Amino acid sequence: MRLTITLQRFNPEQDAAPHDEDVRLDVRRGSTLIDLLIRIKN
Fold it and tell me: Can you list the residues of the chain whose pLDDT is less than 50?
């Protein structure tokens, strides 16, 4: 299954305001939210 997660990102050193970023992931059966967040971080 493919999942799209929309994150709000903000880096005060580079951005004037927060912006949305879409991340698309292939999700395997049994994946947890924390698993997906770790994949996004890496």
Answer: none
